[in-house]
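Our collaborator T.R. sent over the components below with a one-line note: 'Predict the complex.' Nothing else. No constraints on interfaces, no templates requested, no preferences about which chain binds where. So this is a plain run: every listed entity goes in together, and whatever single assembly comes back becomes the starting point for the next discussion.
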Amino acid sequence: MKPGLYSSIQDFGRFGCQQYGVPYSGVMDRYSAGLANIILGNAPDLAVIEMTVMGGVFQFDSDTVICVTGADMSPKLNGETIPQNLPVKIVTGDVLSFGKLRKGVRCYVAVLGGLLSEKILESRSMYQGVTKQSVLLKNDIIEITTSSSFLIIKNALVKLKDEVFENDYLEVFKGPEFDLLTKNQQTFLMSNSFSISKNNSRMAYQLEECLENVLEPIITSPVLPGTVQLTPSGQLIILMRDCQTTGGYPRVLQLKESSINVLAQKFTGDKIQFNLLEY
Amino acid sequence: MAYNLSYKPYGERAIFIEWPAIIDEEILRDVLSFKHKIEKLNIKSLLEIRQSYNSLLVVYGFVEINFKAEIETINKIYSKSESAISLDLMQWTIPVCYEEEFGIDLEELSGLKNVTKSQIIEWHSQSIYTVYFIGFLPGFLYLGGLDKRLHTPRKSTPRLQIRKGSVAIGGSQTGIYPMASPGGWNVIGNTPVTLFDATKQSPCFVKPGDKVRFKPVSLDEYKSIKILVEAGVYQIESEVIRD
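Returned assembly:
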């Protein structure tokens, strides 16, 4: 009924067509989205709704089971508070809504059997220019599997890792151009904490603090989600799931996959620190 | 010719292979032929191989990889000379309408270069361009071979919206906007041809190593080609490149 601030349908992404310039896309926080699916007994990579900062309002036209994970947006069913990280039974006509953001940034809603929205190039992840829609709009109808029988899935043993929310450390590897940095720059990168600027989106997170930098741009070359780029002005940009396939700035660090999930739950003003891992 | 390649791990699941940092057709050929050889290895956990001017990025699926062993496997086949690999390269002739309706920066460019608009169109359409790779936007071709006389700095303030199919010049590069997008390049024309179609299994008909030339068409021709494109029956002029 209402999409919320910025909501889209995402699965684990679109692979194999980066050679055509198509970004991977996919859920920003794979840990939380995967968890929602696993709790329902789905494959972890099925399509879910990803909501950012402010949740939407959804009415169900059939019976099903859902699971809400990720950021805590005070989920409610027909006005009554419901738990996160547990399966919730839905009957036709039920209304799911969200309230105050208490923790994190991105919240996921998985549905038994996964969302059955448009599939383009083997993925349901929304991305402008690839899928018809890039975000959910008011009164959109999303197709789901109708489930008449509700199997209680004994996945209650899923152990919750709260580090996605608690951790301020991002584990990183050296990027292809790391060795071009001076010793001073390397030390600065590893010993300071950085705050997330207001320019943070599914494409990239910019950091406030700058490095003194004389490194020139490189010849356009491949980049990945989690690549930390250093611009000529010394700004650091961490690429996220919707990032372009190639870039021209030196790639100084590369986030570990699990740290991309951690960063996906951070917002403007939050502090992070890099922790260098050896290959 | 064998180059001195550098191999680096790039994150947990990718190997970055780099050639000398030069934009050069000889290097492009070597990059593409190595890519082809790696593909033929049929590495089980391989997700995809990406390529740019002077590099390959070998991306593995959701598995831990042993960098040392993988790099060794890959490097072993680099120096192995095989009988000439056929890359099935094509040359495409892409129709472009340079008329005022589309060539919104032609006037400015002709003033800047102190030549007529038709001179600019001639320079732009007589070159044969090499497709180095696809990036930036889905279906955006990185083309080499722009006439030096046409090199023009990007606009100081980018436009918020450049229409789909716009043919433009930015610095020493020329390109086609495969979809509407903000952009700072100087727009000189528009093609009715679709460069990226997400509903197709191979969403781009052009591939790295192919050649492209632009053929000027009138507004009327543009319109009739557009109708054929929309009906899905337009045949782009093309020929096989033989070395």
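Summary for T.R.: Chain A has four helices and 18 strands.
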